[in-house]
Write a structure and sequence with these properties.
Blueprint: E1 2-7, E2 13-18, H1 24-30, E3 50-53, H2 66-72, E4 83-85, E5 98-101
Parallel strand pairs: 1-5
Antiparallel strand pairs: 1-2, 3-4, 3-5
The structure holds FE2/S2 (inorganic) cluster.
């Protein structure tokens, strides 16, 4: 279980209590966070779950796979060093308190 805070480009902030194993994308879409679309359902094939992971948590999330890195080439908003796909990050106690910023647009 981890409390994850999503901050949309508008500044709207939503904190979600995510069960272990849920992806950040699942938690966001299930809780009305509009800044994540998740059009492919989490199969790392759409890049509409782009997010920016707070620097102090980058070392706590598993590294991006080659597939995720390739999909990050296709994001609609600026790709940054802390860009990730929210469907590829799974909640665990290590991520308690993590803050994720969302881009201006996903498509
Ligand atoms: S939900 Fe499609 S890539 Fe993450």
């Amino acid at each position: 279980m981890a409390n994850i805070t999503f901050i949309e480009a508008s500044g709207q902030s939503t904190t979600v209590d995510l069960p272990d194993g849920w992806s950040l994308m699942q938690g966001a879409t299930a809780n009305g966070v509009d800044g994540i679309l998740g059009e492919c359902g989490g199969s790392c094939a759409c890049a509409t779950c782009h997010c920016y992971v707070a620097d102090d948590f980058l070392a706590k999330v598993l590294p991006a796979s080659d597939t995720e890195l390739a999909m990050l080439d296709n994001v609609a908003s600026e790709r940054r060093p802390n860009s990730r796909l929210a469907c590829q990050i799974k909640a665990s106690a290590d991520l308690e308190g993590m803050v994720v910023h969302l881009p201006e647009t996903q498509e």
